[in-house]
Amino acid sequence: MRRTHHCGVLRLEHVGSRVCLCGWVHSRRDHGGVIFLDLRDRTGLAQVVCDPGKGGPEAHAAADQVRAEYVLRVEGRVVERAPGMANPKIPTGDIEVIAECVEVLNRSEHPPFEIDGEQINPEARLRYRYIDLRRPAMQRNLQIRHDAAQAARKYLCEQGFLEVETPLLLKATPEGARDFVVPCRAIPGTFYVLPQSPQLMKQTLMASGCDRYFQLAKCLRDEDLRADRQYEHTQIDLEMSFVEQDELQETIEGLMRAVFASAGIDLAPSFPKLSYEEAMRRYGSDKPDTRFGVELTDLSDVLADVDFRVFKEALAAGGQVKGICVPAKGQLSRKNIDDLTSFARDFGAKGLAWIVVEEDGLRSSILKFIPEDVQQAMNERMGGQPGDVLLFVADQPKVVAEVLGRLRVKLGHELGLIPDGLHHMLWVTDFPLFEPDAESPTGIQPMHHPFSMPRPDCLQYLDTEPLKVYAQLYDLVYNGAEFGSGSIRIHDPDLQMQVLNLIGIGHSEAYKRFGFLLEVFSHGAPPHGGIGLGFDRIVSVLCGQEASEADIREVIAFPKTSTGRDLMLGCPSPLPQEQLDQLSLLSVAPVAAASSASAQVDWEVVSRTWSLQARSFQGDHRFAERDVAMLCDLVNRFKSRVNALAADSSTDWMTVTAELQRMDEEVTRAADPLCRQLLRSFGPDAD
């Protein structure tokens, strides 16, 4: 009998039906001669009852041999559970299947972790990803990802877009991050790169008359990894011809409403817009979280004549004084404020001034430097009420925005200022085309990329004052996280060459690196624009993650670790010398030269480095004994593991490097907070 139903779809209407289910044993319970199996597949669980008096002794005998994660085929009858035995926690809780036949399709070793466990080692999850993906939470994430992808495709097809695949083997162009390089065997000494984005190819499609293009594109960037960044990620990439910025944004808004609706989330009918300058002025960020207030207030004019050294020196140096009014309601103690000061210093501030608003007035050690009328003016401008805390930073505008922008978000989360269930999507527009860059030969670089069309009213400044040029650039921001970035593109070859010259790419270099694009423009390219939307981050939000803290590894089937390793496949890994010879490549450190893993690692150096790292914190009054003891215990345990690996000549190199990397990461994670504490003890100028 072939499978007739999935496990999670059975309901009361199936009672009396004979069914065939296939899946994994989620749990097994033996209740005195009657065995209960929870059989699991992608759709959920079904309880299977193996009762020799009802379904037959053969099914019971087979069930007696099964264990967790065995793969079974079960035939039987659907019955309603006995009164009082229903399980309201699962959709199939009203029924059960009386097994008549239980066939073991495959056995399983004992799994390395419980499928329904809550605290699972992250490395174990990635090492055994094929087991991790069996967990209902991960199956749900994959389903949500699938639904979102199909919703995007359906919407864009209805809007007249064509899905076109662009090449994975491309020519290197300046895109901001490092490329993954692919050697070409057929032409020794030459290389392809993997696409950081399909930017140039989609612009070429517009010149080819495609008119409207999209794809769920794989993008690859060789950059440092973190929770919301992987070497390879997916973006909803699209481009439109003969389009203006407003029309394109309306199209994207419809796309986002369709994608979010696939997960049961309704978005606003239109998204508000903030210019880059307004976003920085009000929120200190070009990706502002607008779910709550606590906006930045400029007090530079109010404090211009105040004889308080910190404020006075900052203003004299061309800086500014800004503050935020935090509705703390008594939740911020002096220790909390000291911790916030340390946080501010971590992001470049020299310090953090504060004033507490009380029923009978203001309280702060800085008030003796500020006249009462100025105190009143400050509080009125910031809207301070009893229970609020006013926080101030005095520095250059970039530092002020960075520190206060991060502080408002940190406090928004910690003080519960952000209401649950809000979905704030907005556009940040009118970015500068260029930003200063001391390392550039011309002193400037593109803020995003060199293919963005300047605003028509700014073209007059292009050659003389390029930092005054604003571009038709726009970012889509959701709850304080950037979802995507796009622009109206340059389509005129002369203007494109002019922009490239401004960032130090001359005529010959430009044609050497992407002459094909300039050639494309010279053959009648239409006005066009587009955007790339981070699909992984969008799916993370649809799965319930906070946008600014998204861990995209939870929605990617096979992600890499923070060091770029695939623990399941054991890569990256060395190539055989024969394959390197075919590619005309030399190996910097050929693994084959060693007879064993221990010959590849200076175990004494590794052990001594960890020991010195731990001992450097011992006896220092600035550190809690508990923290230092924990670090030393961790190092001692890992030293024992290092010695065991060194003594085992049969240990293969791949296992050693993976284990050593894991141990090193854990020691570093434990030591990092102590290192930051040590730096802060040296004062604000500590490097």
User: Measured on Cα atoms, how large is the radius of gyration?
Assistant: 31 Å
The chain-level structural class is: alpha+beta
Terminal Cα separation, in Å? 71 Å
Query: Which segments are poorly predicted (pLDDT under 50) over 5 or more consecutive residues?
Result: 590-600, 681-687
Q: What's the number of helices?
A: 18
What is the assembly state of the chains in this entry?
single chain
Percent helix range:
25-40%
SS strand fraction: 15-25%
- Most strands sheet: 8 strands, mixed
The shape is globular
Number of extended strands: 22
Averaged pLDDT, please?
A: 88
Main sheet: strand order: 6-9-10-22-21-20-17-11
Summarize the structure.
This protein is of the alpha+beta class. The chain has helices at residues 57-63, 122-127, 129-132, 136-158, 199-207, 245-261, 276-283, 309-316, 334-346, 372-382, 397-414, 493-502, 507-521, 535-542, 577-582, 603-615, 625-647, 653-681; strands at 18-31, 34-41, 44-50, 71-80, 95-106, 162-163, 181-183, 191-193, 212-220, 232-241, 273-275, 297-298, 320-326, 353-358, 361-363, 389-395, 425-429, 434-436, 444-446, 473-478, 481-488, 528-534. α4 (136-158) packs antiparallel against α6, α9 (334-346) packs across α11 and α12 runs antiparallel to α13 (507-521).
